[in-house]
Write a structure and sequence with these properties.
single chain; mainly alpha; elongated; binds heme C
């Protein structure tokens, strides 16, 4: 037909191509280039792995490789003791940080930012919010002096009684440094009298144990000494404790 009507064919060709171009642009905002170019190497058409896509038929690699259940990042060291496992935590962990002036200074700064509001400047349990919040017992009591470093560390990691956990706000190193600062205060400040609950617990455990508690508390250095001795020789002492 084109041979017979060559002139007609040539004259209609620009109109057809114009129509085709306009049709492609339908639906696009004025002034924008159409997204799909007439180009076979367009990135949209290239074979590729899309993120978050799973290949149902197993013929192509998945965009996201599923992580096995229970997998954790290599930088994560989840704390493995539950709240009610304070006694296990007390024996399994030793303080990985040295009792150096720098660590104590770091612990002081953490204590003054996170603990002082309830525990007070000398950990006597007289922090500013205690008018509204349950008053914590003094950390200078014989009982806390006898705690191992791991036992003290466990309290802000998991929370205890009405004290919430600080594991989301503070890194383990920061909490270990606070433990050193509490030890430092215990070595400088007088021994606080036992709490009512300590006496009840002591009475339940037997007169012999209650006597030991009071005796240990009277010597200023005992707090640190007890912590170190209790941790030494446990299976995990060398690893620093946290997993
Ligand atoms: C919101 C108030 C509050 C803050 C903040 C707080 N505590 Fe406590 N803390 C308490 C209370 C209340 C208790 C008593 C909990 C119980 O055994 O019933 C307590 C108990 C403790 C104990 C255990 C004492 C014992 O006799 O067993 C330790 C150790 C301790 N806190 C350390 C810390 C450290 C370290 C920080 C900062 C990282 C901190 N606390 C921040 C309220 C607080």
């Amino acid at each position: 037909m084109c041979r017979r009507h060559a002139a007609w064919c040539i004259s209609i060709l620009p109109v057809v191509s114009l129509l085709a171009t306009t049709a492609c642009e339908v639906g696009l905002p004025a002034g924008q280039e159409p997204h799909r170019q007439f180009n076979w190497t367009d990135m949209e058409d290239q074979p590729k792995i899309k993120p978050q896509r799973v290949d149902l038929f197993g013929t192509k690699p998945n965009g996201t490789i599923p992580t096995p259940a229970g997998a954790v990042a290599t930088t994560e060291h989840p704390y493995r003791f539950q709240q009610d496992q304070a006694e296990l935590a007390a024996l399994a962990m030793t303080n990985p940080l040295p009792h150096s002036p720098e660590v104590i200074a770091k612990g002081k700064s953490v204590f003054e930012n996170f603990c002082i509001v309830c525990h007070g400047p000398e950990a006597a349990g007289d922090g500013k919010v205690t008018k509204l919040f349950p008053k914590p017992p003094s950390l200078m009591r014989p009982k806390v002096r006898e705690y191992t470093d791991g036992r003290i560390f466990h309290v802000p990691m998991r929370g205890q009684g009405s004290m919430p956990s600080y594991a989301k706000q503070l890194a383990p190193e920061e909490l270990w440094s606070v433990v050193h600062y509490i030890r430092d205060m215990q070595s400088r400040l007088p021994v606080a009298p036992p709490d009512k609950r300590d006496l009840e617990a002591g009475a339940a455990a037997g007169a012999g144990e209650a006597g030991t508690g009071t005796g240990a508390g009277t010597s200023a250095g005992t707090g640190t000494g007890t912590g170190t001795t209790a941790g030494t020789g446990t299976a995990e002492a060398a690893t620093g404790g946290i997993r």
